[in-house]
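Late entry, evening session. Most of the bench is empty. Finally got around to the prediction I had been postponing all week. Sequence below, unchanged from the version circulated by S.P.
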Amino acid sequence: MGDFSSKKPSALDFVGKAKFDAWSALKGISQVEAQKRYVHLVSSLMNEHVEQVGESDRAISDLEPISGVNVSKKGKIFWIELNRPEKYNAITWEMYRGLTKAFSYASKDPDTAVTVFAGVGSYFCSGNDLSNFAGVKTREDITRVAAEGATVLDEYVSVFVNHEKPLIALVNGPAIGIAVTVLALFDLVLASDKATFHTPFTTLGQSPEGCSTYTFPMLMGHLKAAEVLLFGRKLTALEALERNLVNQVIPASAFLTESSKLVEAYSNLPPGSLRLSKQSLRSVHKKALLECKDREVKLLAERWQSSECIEAIQRFMSRRK
């Protein structure tokens, strides 16, 4: 018969308990019939797992491909990479929109434990691609581009503030502008010893963004934050570590290997606990961050239309010719 005698496993022995419960449900029938039903049960569970994996793969493919942005899923890790090395991973308006959609998707994906942001090539990211302002000739053009940029920036920064999963940045090389400011909205920042952090907003006639006017003074203190945001002090990886913008500095020769190990380890932590704890941490400052984001976007849209900014961008573009 299909009956069996065995000591019931501990509640903590999940695999053993599942087997015990499955066999218990078959009590009182023939051994042959019990084996058939047990095999059917296991097969159905395996098929369900395959379907779930397939659905996850299809869902990622639903994200519209964007030039310069790589999106992939490896286990419980959602990878978002800047892949425009010939332009030092500078971000175009189209890339901003694609990144916003990718981060938003990762935040809601039930199979994602952590979201990773990285750069391909020697740079992490050189910030906003100033060619976004190319072709601007009239005052109407300037107003239109500033409005478009404000909308794109608002959505981009918001997706970091609202992200529900732990955010991990792998800063392999130089980071400039918005690539630096949003790091303070991440939960873990790993940097290569070749990385640098530069926010030349004043030089370009612009103003800080990425909630940095709130987060940087909180992390560094007012004086050191002002040195970075107002006066454009470029930080080395170790200086960024000292100022609480980076969690760990890893030698460049071992950066990919060591950072991947850490990401993999963190992705295997209980996902529900990660998500709820992240949300609890964010809730303390979320309202203030969103208010700061609104102020910064409004001011930057005004700065983009200023003569100081227009002249600075024109000088930059002329040097590239």
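Two things to note before I forget:
The chain has two domains: 1-62, 66-320.
The beta strands are 69-74, 77-82, 114-119, 167-171, 175-176, 188-192, 196-198, 235-236, 248-250.
Will write this up properly tomorrow.
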